[in-house]
Specification:
The complex is a heterodimer of chains A (100) and B (413). Helix content of chain A is 8%, strand content 37%. Chain A is mainly β. Chain A has one domain: Folate-binding superfamily (Folate-binding fold). In chain A, strand 5 and strand 6 form a beta hairpin. Chain B has 2 domains: 239 residues, FAD/NAD(P)-binding domain (3-Layer(bba) Sandwich); 152 residues, D-Amino Acid Oxidase, subunit A, domain 2 (D-Amino Acid Oxidase, Chain A, domain 2, 2-Layer Sandwich), CATH 3.30.9.10. In chain B, 52% of the residues are buried. Classes of the chains: A mainly beta (100), B alpha+beta (413). Chains A and B meet through helix 1 of A and loops of B.
Chain lengths: 100, 413
């Protein structure tokens, strides 16, 4: 079993974690085009090599970021998401919907 | 009935001519370049020759013929999908499969076994009933069978209530079949190469050459090749080749593992699948039980096998077939699958003119080999997207019109 080092819980079996996709920039939902939004939701870099990904430790409901080599099947580094996302993202207010 | 072997036996001349014609040097220009010499690529070459008379084709392969997922799947053929788009598409494939041995004069060992998708919950019974009705409506032979029928049709199954997930019923698809997967690629490739198609193995595509958004050729590890049109058919490496062409795909490359047991006497006629338990099993003509399970839990460009997979698979397999406890495993392997968000393929046009894509074949690509070849050949030859493959276009993601296929293999419902 592969071991993933959780910043909160220490080394744990990888089967306790859920893969959460690549770390990619979140477009602003109210102003992004359909193409930009589809790119964010569906398209993947699917890199062969070192990638930065979201992982979720299910038993403790804790999200982390892991750097992983997708060819060698090795986990290089793990750290709490707060290292990258220190503050809440600020989006402009959504456009007012016409309620008629 | 393929009579090739019989003719060879009575022939005065030995040995027989080469199955694949050796291609010689890579030419600087072809009409069509097909990237990937798996089942899909070779079938496309075959139908381009047969239906459109196009023979100036190079099939370029970084490894060897049929060495990717063509030789790594569990060789199951069926058309009992859930969406009408899926059912129509795979039904044409099943019909083409039936005639292949005759067409190639080469036995692909296509045998109809009957395919059972087990249901362990009321919700699964409901989905099976839904699939059966969709299938029947579209002319595909499928029906829901309950435990008493299952006991008669698949007596090897443990139908007792003393297991973790008792079996309630199954979707029975009588035309479900298996074939020798290598032979499918060899049959298509052999006939195509004898008609003039060049299959260049050990040749890696390193760049897709374009001018003003139009394809002009490909750069390979053996030099530049210009062409009028090209298609990529490279399961597992789809994102990497698309990246060379400059576009992204909604694909994650995830390994799918499988294994075979030691050869046994004929003991299991049916193909048995359980979506909820992530298991499928069938017995090959030489007696090995072919077993597969769910895809790995995370993306990986590797064909390694893991013990976790086997422990998980066998725990469920023994629940269905307790007699397997004494049987030894003989071989294990993995393939790199293209998983898409809607469990459906991506085929058709790309942002580059005259460059086509056939990808996203996840865990359901082998059974589609003939229909992909036929319809992609139609697209390449005429430039028009056939109606049958329109639902699987790449732009569906941008339009948020996903296919929503829930009949795919190794996917729970």
């Amino acid at each position: 079993m592969k071991i993933l080092n959780c910043p909160l819980n220490g080394p744990r079996n990888i089967s306790e974690f859920v893969y959460g996709g690549e770390v990619v920039e979140h477009p602003e939902p109210h102003i992004s085009s359909n193409a930009e939004w589809a790119d964010y939701v569906f398209l993947e870099n699917n890199t062969a090599g070192v990638v930065r990904e979201w992982w979720y430790h299910a038993p403790t409901a804790y999200w982390i970021i892991a750097e992983r080599d997708t060819v060698a099947d090795e986990i290089i580094r793990t750290y709490p998401a707060s290292e990258v996302y220190g503050e809440r993202m600020a989006y402009p207010a959504p456009p007012q919907l016409d309620e008629s | 009935m393929p009579l090739g072997l019989l003719k060879y036996g009575f022939s005065k001349k030995h040995p027989a001519p080469r199955h694949f014609v050796a291609p010689g040097e890579l030419k600087p220009r072809y009409d069509v370049v097909i990237i990937g010499a798996g089942g899909h690529g070779l079938a496309t070459a075959y139908y381009l020759v047969r239906d459109y008379g196009i023979t100036d084709i190079a099939v370029i392969e970084q490894g060897y013929i049929g060495g990717g997922n063509t030789g790594r799947n569990t060789a199951i053929i069926r058309s009992n999908y859930l969406t009408p788009d899926g059912v129509h598409f795979y039904d044409e494939s099943v019909k083409l499969f039936r005639d292949l041995s005759q067409e190639f004069d080469y036995n692909i060992m296509y045998t109809e076994r009957g395919h059972f998708t087990l249901a362990h919950t009321d919700a699964a019974i409901r989905t099976m009933r839904w699939r059966a009705e969709v299938n029947k409506h579209l002319g595909v032979d499928s029906e829901l069978v309950m435990r008493d029928d299952l006991a008669r049709l698949v007596p090897q199954l443990d139908l007792s209530d003393t297991v973790r997930y008792p079996i309630l019923g199954a979707l029975y698809h009588a035309p479900g079949a298996i074939a020798r997967h290598d032979a499918v690629a060899w049959g298509y490739g052999g006939v195509a190469s004898r008609k003039g198609v060049e299959i260049h193995q050990q040749t890696k595509v390193t760049a897709i050459l374009q001018e003003n958004g139009k394809l002009i050729g490909v750069e390979t590890s053996r030099g530049t090749v210009h062409c009028n049109r090209a298609v990529q058919m490279v399961a597992g490496s789809s994102s990497l080749v698309a990246k060379l062409a400059g576009f992204k795909l909604p694909i994650r490359t995830i390994p799918l593992q499988a294994c075979v047991s030691q050869p046994l006497k004929p003991i299991l006629d049916a193909i048995v699948v359980s979506g909820s338990l992530h298991t499928y099993i069938s017995q090959t003509p030489r007696g090995e039980l072919v077993m597969g399970g769910a895809t790995d839990p995370y993306p990986l460009y590797s064909t390694r096998s893991s013990l976790e997979f086997k422990e998980g698979l066998m725990a469920h397999m023994l629940e269905l077939f307790p007699f397997l406890a004494e049987v030894k495993l003989l071989r294990q392997w993995a393939g790199m699958t293209d998983m898409t968000p809607d469990f459906s393929p991506i085929m058709g046009l790309t942002p580059i003119e005259n460059y086509y894509v056939d990808s996203g074949w996840g865990t359901w690509g082998f059974k589609a080999t003939p229909v992909v070849g036929k319809r992609m050949a139609e697209l390449i030859a005429t430039g028009r997207v056939p109606d049958l493959i329109k639902p699987f276009r790449l732009e569906r993601f941008e339009e948020f019109k996903l296919v929503g296929e829930k009949g795919a293999a190794s996917v729970g419902h």
